[in-house]
Write a structure and sequence with these properties.
Elements: H1 13-22, H2 36-39, H3 45-48, H4 66-77, E1 82-83, E2 89-91, E3 101-105, H5 116-131, E4 136-140, H6 147-155, E5 170-174, H7 183-190, E6 194-199, E7 202-204, H8 230-242
Parallel strand pairs: 3-4, 5-6
Antiparallel strand pairs: 1-2, 6-7
């Protein structure tokens, strides 16, 4: 919060105790009351099952979140990468690249994770894309990186919060077969990226205005051996980075 909105104060209970002890009236220009219970009673909650559900049909600019993204990135890593239509970084000079970045966020050291053989196959399939000269691939273990390192990696690659939105920017989310939640689909699409859900070798995406129906938690949702077909994901990335812009869905 402080990085994105440096001028904003964050007041804890001690501050409010001080207000109360002064026994006077304070007038706030604007106040927002957030209730998780109330949010889930909205008619749209049955579609997305998230607190943000009531805002999903709000008519706002596609660049609504750009000031927040740019301010956060600038304040943490000191620059905001600029990308061209091919996904290559064109500025600032110290991070210019001749290939787009693809980041695989690995959870193999944590709880929910892929089958180990499928993880290895996925890494191999992604590295083949790198060896072919299509992109640079980074396998990120976020728990081993500082906040600044995490954001720098994300700002230069395919991560929904901090990379610049473009016709090629893509978020690929791997689910246990039969499972689906909207968490990252909502986030990625709201900031201007194409989202794909993947069940092993089956991929699903939706055009603007359409969404996956419902939320599904299978017994393996938090499994320790989630299957995924690495070549299927590599083929999708190849398509997203190679196809002419007029052929891309976004």
């Amino acid at each position: 919060m402080r990085v994105a909105f440096p001028s904003m104060s964050i007041e804890n209970a001690d501050v409010w105790d001080d207000y109360a002890s002064l026994d006077t009236t304070f007038v706030f220009e604007r106040a927002m009351i957030i209730s998780r219970v109330a949010a889930h009673t909205h008619p749209f909650a049955g579609q997305w099952f998230k607190m943000i559900s009531s805002t999903m049909t709000a008519n706002v600019s596609d660049a609504f979140w750009e000031p927040v993204r740019q301010t956060t990135t600038q304040n943490i890593i000191g620059y905001v990468p600029q990308l061209n239509s091919k996904g290559q970084i064109t500025s600032p000079p110290q991070v210019v690249s001749d290939m787009p970045f693809v980041t695989y966020i690995s959870r193999q050291n944590g709880g929910r994770r892929l089958a180990e053989t499928d993880h290895s196959e996925l890494v191999s399939a992604l590295k083949e894309l790198e060896w072919s000269g299509l992109c640079q691939v980074y396998v990120a273990h976020m728990e081993k990186l500082t906040m600044a390192q995490q954001l720098e990696v994300m700002a230069r690659s395919t991560h929904q919060l901090f990379m610049p939105p473009s016709p090629r920017s893509t978020v690929i989310e791997i689910f246990a077969p039969g499972s689906y939640v909207h968490d990252y689909a909502i986030l990625s699409r709201n900031v201007g990226h194409k989202h794909y859900g993947v069940w092993n070798d089956t991929l699903e995406t939706h055009p603007r205005g359409q969404w996956h129906q419902g939320v599904h938690y299978t017994a393996d949702f938090h499994g320790l051996s989630i299957p995924v077909h690495g070549p299927a994901i590599a083929d999708l990335i190849r398509q997203r980075l190679s196809d002419p812009l007029e052929k891309l869905e976004y």
